[in-house]
Amino acid sequence: MKTIGKILCTAFLLSGTAAASQAAYDPVSARHGLSLKVPGNSAKEYALQARPAGSGNYELVGREALPLRIGLTVSECGNATRVSVRLRALDDVWFHYAQLVPSGYRHEECQFLMPGFWYRRNLRSPEGAPSFKVADSWTVREDRLSTPLCAVYDPQGGKYVSVLRTDRPDCDALTTHREGEVIVSGRTSLGYTGFENLDGRACLSFGFPYRETPRSYVRKLTLAPSVRAFQHLRAGEELTLGWEIVSGRAEDFSELVRRVWEYSYAALAPRPVETPYTPERMKEVLSRYFTQAYVSDYPLKFTSGVHLRTADCRSNGMAEVGFIGRVLLNAFNALEYGQAHGDGEMAARAAAVFDSYLAHGFTPGGLLRESVDFAKGTETDVFSIRRQSEGIYALLYYLDYEKRRGNRHPQWERRVTDLLDRLIRLQGADGSFPRKFGDDLSVVDAGGGSTSSATLPLVMAYRYFGEKKYLECAERTAGYLEREIIDKSDYFSSTLDANCEDKEASLYASTAMYYLTLVTRGEERARYAALCREAAYFALSWYYLWDVPFAPGQMLGDIGLKTRGWGNVSVENNHIDVFVFEFAAVLDFLAGEFGDDRLSGFSKVIHTSMRQLLPYPGHLCGVAREGYYPEVVQHTAWDYGKNGKGYYNDIFAPGWTVASLWELFSPERTHAFFSRR
Questions:
Q1: Domain architecture of the chain: domains with CATH
Q2: For the chain, what percent of residues have pLDDT higher than 90?
Q3: Which of 170, 210, 455, 543 could tie 512 with a disulfide, CB 3.0–4.6 Å?
């Protein structure tokens, strides 16, 4: 069996990283710090010096005798440097170890990457979320990050340096406080990473146990005071920590993201998660959501899947076409599944949903009624390109399915073409669609971050109706996405409950380009495939390559959740979820297109990992009803409003989680739609 050092060295060499001229790390010029705390007293700080001890070994010593001995071992592998820190307690101690590594780059010129949490300077994020608007130096707990890594990038010189935690965290412990100096109640393996401005120079910052500076992020748009944790070591106990530091070159930030993902994937080597649930079993259990959530009390029939309580999953009067409700897509899934499995009642209810939306589901201006709360007698009068697009997407699948069964719906077809033609009027000269607008098509939010969501139904409409104008509109969106989103590596504001850097913008952009490859040929198709791949790496950077440890008593850890394959959401909403829809199929396409087994390998990780929290009797995973797949999975020291790490928020939206998993386990659907013409 390979040693971890050999694995990491091999990972570095296989990653294709363009090397700088020399390794990025010098243990003598690095700054080492030790903090010791006696409970009930403020910590005492010690600056350490690296004293050579031969053969790549060093002693870290202070100006006075310390109650623990610290050894440092450094070894080189090309432009990767492995750093191992060994601590041996001579007396009972509560300690915190820190290291600061100068990059040699001017801080004011640098951009930074902490995958799944920090992109460039997080300047798309509003006040109240971590960004350069608050401070220019940040360190965070490793479990916030999809890869426990930080990279400092100098765009002027095209160089970067990164640090990756290499010993595998496998345990965590609770603390009684979340700010200031805190003592963990048992064993933790969580450290921290980040970047700091030291006299105008950018530095990598990392250590153990965790700390967060200058602020901690505790819930949506809520910054809290900093926190620094202390681990107890008894006299005679030892602890070994490991990091790997890599220097390399990247032409731009997009290439940095790709190189970091490829390196991290090879280094962490995520494997599929072993679960007993086949795709057929997943659909069998998830289909129970269709029957239990069905609401027929109002003019619109729907599956209730928005703002439900995890404690009872009781249906309410809220119907949402897209985003977190996905009423029409769930109706199509229920119709198809019900008819395939002889469940006439399920199929009839699904058909009733479509009939009710044909009769009552449109505004006076001809838009889909996006979000209606019948219980309160309210509905939105501000509409979004994302929800409208997701509604059309589901309707085109429904119409295609019905046509293949010999059923035509001319009224629906007219409704869909009228809606598409109205939305096309919103498209700007640059190819973008506004994020939000009124029923009269007056623009409320002109931001183009959601444009990619419109590409999918436009390409589908071209294939279904044979109207070239829809393809031309889709191609104009692709031009905008290429110029303003993908080329600039600026993926933002696709999700509707946040306005920041987010996973869904890159995922939608990648999927949009994938759709265009299905209806084009030659050089044009090759261009879309390349853009699809470039956007896919940004989406991949949000997905966890490692398993976050949980403390005993935190439900997700107690039921054995492995976080690899799950995606963080956004800078604002710092939790993981099962938002994938067709992205795994996109990865499989890219793997075949470019001969890259890493992409199909990680697709398998996603496929298996997202099956873990399937709720059924005896295995409800913290929700009240079978089939209601959980949503806000809180995996780090952050909560959406309730409960914190290891639990869900008390309110969730299974409407979209069921729809996402259904598409994940229907990989043939898209190709079948486009190949039938």
A1: 4-267 (2.70.98), 279-675 (1.50.10.10)
A2: 93
A3: 455
